[in-house]
Amino acid sequence: MNTENAIQFPEGFLWGAASAAYQVEGASAEGGKAPSIWDNFSQLPGKTKNGTDGKVAVDHYHRFREDIQLMAKMNLKTYRFSLAWSRVLPNGEVNQEGLDFYGALIDELIANGIEPVVTLYHWDLPQALQDEYGGWESRETIQAFLKYAEVVFKEFGDRVRYWVTFNEQNVFTSLGYRWASHPPNVSDMKRMYQANHLVNLANAEVISLCHRLLPDALIGPSFGYGEVVPETCHPQDVVAAMDANLFNNDWWLEVYCRGTYPQRIMNVLKQLDLDFEVTAADTATLKAAKPDFLGINYYHGGTVRRPSATVMNEKNLEMTDPYLMAADGQKETPEHLLFQSVSNPYLAKTDWGWEIDPVGLQIALRNVYEKYQLPIFITENGLGAFDTLTSTDEIDDDYRITFYREHLLELANAIACGVPVIGYCAWSFTDLLSWLNGYEKRYGFVYVDRTDEDVRELKRIPKKSYFWYRDLIAKNGQQLTEEK
Asked: Where does this protein have coiled-coil stretches (predicted)?
């Protein structure tokens, strides 16, 4: 279905932008904050570009009021941000300075008519929990997460309606426990699946806790989703795409929404001795919790063909980004039994090699909604690019405007097809630390003047896309009709 005439977004649609604590806050040792696993991991040689870290980031901790004023001038309706767990409970005990900071941030947003959307976990586990319990490989960490969630639900529940449990569980478990390119710096698939199961339990427990403590709140996970399509119409390629979607998407969404793991994937894991114990109590916990919405982080999907009979040899060993939905070079992996990822010749790519697939957003939203029948919140969608600051302090990022326009048109198509969408949070509001890629990979509507090596004055400079999005929000998306 195509919206041939007027673009229609719902009244009260939450136009927004997003960030994550470690990537923007800085003040890594201020205000009572203790180290997170990212504070320590970023100090390991060779793990991040140019040794970049979040010690200063873009100094949102000290400049949040300035940033929120820019949000207000942009007409932003919502701002999604995460709490740093190690700022709230640095060593298992409540840190009032941390609560005061987030309370002031939330109050400032509300005073400017901006709905806060709070993410509980955006990858920065307190290092103390990693050291004491082994992080997400221990059920003790689930209990610690429940304690942390209860503290912030009670502290901010009167002002925050929308909560996100975990950001991109599929990414932080894979990169942390399979490819050793995120903390805790492990390369062991069996440990990855065991840890992932415990995160699923934590997600379910916290959703149930929120429903008990905050009956009027809405809570759900934020998942890095990409629809997988077959390379050709050959029936075996179609089967491979079906298996790839089970492996890359439904492996998590089935658990979130129905409390069960897809049997096809469980069978493959058992074949490879990667299976894990699911107790009767675990099943009851997973089935008892149902999210109020699904957060979808969309950047692109994937294309696959039927799997090759030949396992990659040592010369082809290469770590790949999970968003690329490709098997890595580790032998005897589930992907090698299920599908083989290929490039899509019909799609352009970003400067970092990610395929740009706006239509894939419509496909993803329609499929997710028809399967799970939950409202959807676009919690991330954006373009990382090299932005150039001119001598007159301007950033002409027309490529970013084109990216957003094309994706929002497909979002409108999905809404026209009957998909209930709560809101859209672009990634990101300001430029920020891009985890492994430093500060050169820029996503923001607002340029932050710093480099990997030089913090400079961190001057905020709105980009051309900032003003485009401002005008789009003012007309609730009608500008897209005029630009078609």
From this structure: none
